């Protein structure tokens, strides 16, 4: 027979899990959308207020303004300094042999080095 303490503990655990599950479901289904709608309304009202301010500060209909001639601004720009460049001869990088493991004997290291030299040599 199962002790009654285990049954009561199991039932209590199941009830807590159900309360948490339905509480989370309640919050996500009913309360969270209210907060999202309120945030959207606030942002929308801020955007409308900004648009009204821009319209108040903006130009009147039919008003013309000349800010400057673009061609005059281009001609006023001075050329930069001339920099004399030297021709640099390209020297290709030397091939670097991969490291030889330390645990090999001296003979094995020499054989490995000769083998690697054959692989990486230009005449090969």
Molecular structure report:
The model has no long low-confidence stretch (mean pLDDT 77). The protein starts with a helix and ends with a helix. It has a domain of 54 residues. It is built from 3 helices and no strands.
Topology:
Elements lengths: L3 H54 L12 H7 L29 H15 L4
Give descriptors for this structure.
3 helices, 124 residues
In short:
The chain has 124 residues and is mainly alpha-helical. It has 3 helices and no strands.
Largest sheet: none
Give the structural class: mainly alpha
Low-pLDDT segments: none
Calculate Rg over CA atoms: 40 Å
Number of DSSP helical runs: 3
Number of strands: 0
Strand proportion = under 5%
User: What distance lies between the first and last C-alpha atoms, to the nearest angstrom?
Assistant: 84 Å
SSE order, one letter for each helix or strand: HHH
Q: What global shape is seen?
A: flat
Percent helix, as a range, is 55-70%
Q: What integer is the average pLDDT? A: 77
């Amino acid at each position: 027979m199962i002790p009654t303490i285990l049954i009561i503990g199991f039932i209590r655990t199941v009830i807590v899990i159900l309360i948490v599950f339905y509480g989370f479901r309640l919050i996500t289904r009913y309360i969270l959308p209210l907060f999202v709608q309120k945030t959207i309304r606030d942002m929308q009202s801020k955007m409308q207020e900004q648009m009204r301010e821009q319209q108040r500060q903006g130009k009147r209909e039919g008003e013309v303004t000349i800010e400057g001639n673009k061609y005059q601004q281009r001609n006023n720009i001075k050329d930069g300094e001339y920099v004399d460049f030297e021709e640099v001869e390209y020297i290709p990088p030397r091939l670097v042999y991969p490291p030889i493991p330390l645990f090999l004997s001296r003979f094995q290291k020499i054989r490995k080095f000769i083998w690697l030299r054959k692989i990486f040599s230009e005449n090969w």
